Amino acid sequence: MNGVDIEGSAAWQELEKYRRIFYATPDYATFSNLETGKFIDVNPGFEKMIGYKREEIIGRTAESIDLWVSEEDRASVVTALKHSEKVFITTRFRKRSGEIILVEASAATFKVQDELLLVAVVRDITARHQAEQELLQYRHQLEQLVAQRTAELERAMERLQELTVHDELTGAGNRRDLNDKLETDREFFERTGLPFCVAVLDLDGFKAVNDRFGHTIGDAAIKKFASLVKTEKRAMDYFARYGGDEFVILLRNIGAEEAIKPLQRICDAVAEYEWDEIAAGIQLSTSVGLAAFRRGESADQLFSRADAALYNAKTAGRNRIVGAED
Question: Burial, 60: exposed, middle or buried (Cβ in 10 Å; 0-12, 13-18, 19+)?
Answer without folding.
Answer: middle
